[in-house]
Amino acid sequence: MIELGIFWREAVDFAFRYYHAGVRIYWLFLLSALLLAGVSYLRYRNEGEPLSLKGFVRFLFPRSVWFNKSALVDYRFFIIVVPFWTAVVGPVLLSAATVGALVADALQSLTSVELTDTSPVIAGLAYTVCLFFADDFRRYAVHYMFHRVPFLWEFHKVHHSAEVLTPITLYREHPVYLLTSRVSAAALIGVTTGVFIGLFGSQLSVFTVLGVNVGYFLFDTLGSNLRHSHIWLSWGRRIEHIFISPAQHQIHHSDQPRHYDKNFGSALAIWDWMFGTLYVPERREDLSFGLPDEKERWFDSVFGLIVRPFYNAYSVLVRRPGYRSGGFESR
After folding, report:
1. Domain assignment of residue 89, given as a range
2. Does 197 score more than 90 pLDDT?
3. Number of domains in the chain
4. Residue 68 falls within a domain, yes or no?
5. Is residue 242 part of a domain?
6. Phi, psi of 73 (to 5 degrees)
7. b/e burial code for range 217-231 (CB count within 10 A of at least 16 → b)
8. Mean of the per-residue pLDDT values for the chain?
9. H helical segments located in 111-203
10. Over pLDDT 70: what percentage of the chain?
């Protein structure tokens, strides 16, 4: 048996070894979110309230949000589940590199078409753009599926059970959702990479900033940490038909029926626009979050967040008499 203290020390060490720009709570993205929150503070602070550092701090960190019972569950979930997932589950999942190599080999054996004379800059730019768009659509599709398939919705409820939003709420995802997302990402990124390597050769490179696809680097820099927060930040109607703003994602978490099944997109709003799930706010809206139809408070503990969805999903499959999927019919 591995001593528990040694396990957690190794797990945390493993997790923080990969704390870089590929993680949304990277310090640079937190700093950019802080600056954008300042813009929101200038616009939405209480009427007549003078500008002050103390007022800005209160605006950023209201006790009603950061010390809410739901937020405290988020913190415990993050401390317990994320290191375990990163250290134990993540390394054994399907690898995009493995899929890419298999696809590239298959493509090269099936066709003699090669574009190795193409400028590396053009090939790299095409690869970067295709990778970003393909992965963003994958995120939309997985997210949509977990809302619209009753069995899967029981697992995604974990995320939507949060009654307040902080940047840590991002990590309040059931392992079934994480597993589906990671495996689908490895498959899609692997296939996309394999096709491009097969066509342009193994010298292909992606345009990155600090090791991250430039598209997602910009997304994380432009307030991605405010998506799960109480701070309203809207890009305006025109831009919000192309890019999902923090305000639009907060609307996605809303417990109000008019907001159900809206704004599934990650970085891009074009998928929501194309498939009729886009909601663009006219003005700032007062929002509340959570699962108001759930009578049993299974989401008040980490144990409940992990275990209860399996019971609920089983109830959906066997159609247990009297079981109602917590508002799914209206979502």
Report:
1. 4-318
2. no
3. 1
4. yes
5. yes
6. -65, -40
7. bebbbbbbbbbbbbb
8. 85
9. 120-148, 150-160, 175-200
10. 80
Q: Residue 111: what pLDDT?
A: 59
What is the SS3 string spanning 20-45? CCCCCCCHHHHHHHHHHHHHHHHHHC
Task: List residues bridging with 243 in a β-sheet.
Answer: 268
Q: Where do we find the tokens 């307030």? A: 223
Tokens in use for 279? 């909601």
In a domain, 324, yes or no: no
Alpha carbon distance 275, 103 (integer Å): 30
Q: In degrees, to the nearest 5, what angle opens at C-alpha 119 toward C-alphas 110 and 132? A: 75
Examine residue 302 and state whether it is found in any structural domain, yes or no: yes
> Looking at beta carbons, which pairs linking 138-146 to residues 24 or more positions away fall under 8 Å?
138/184, 138/185, 138/188, 139/181, 139/265, 139/266, 140/264, 140/265, 140/266, 140/268, 140/271, 140/272, 142/180, 142/181, 142/184, 143/264, 143/266, 144/264, 144/275, 144/277, 146/177, 146/180
> Do the beta carbons of residue 162 and residue 289 sit within 8 Å?
yes
Q: What pTM was computed for the model?
A: 0.87
Pair of tokens at residue 302: 């980490």
SS3 265: coil
> Residue 152 is encoded by which pair of tokens?
């899967």
Q: Tell me the per-residue pLDDT of 50-69, one tens digit each, with 9 for 90 and over.
A: 889 999 999 999 999 999 99
Q: How would residue 74 be classed by pLDDT, with cut points 50, 70 and 90?
A: very high
- State the DSSP string of 39-87: HHHHHHSPTTPPP-HHHHHHHH--HHHHTSHHHHHHHHHHHHHHHHIII
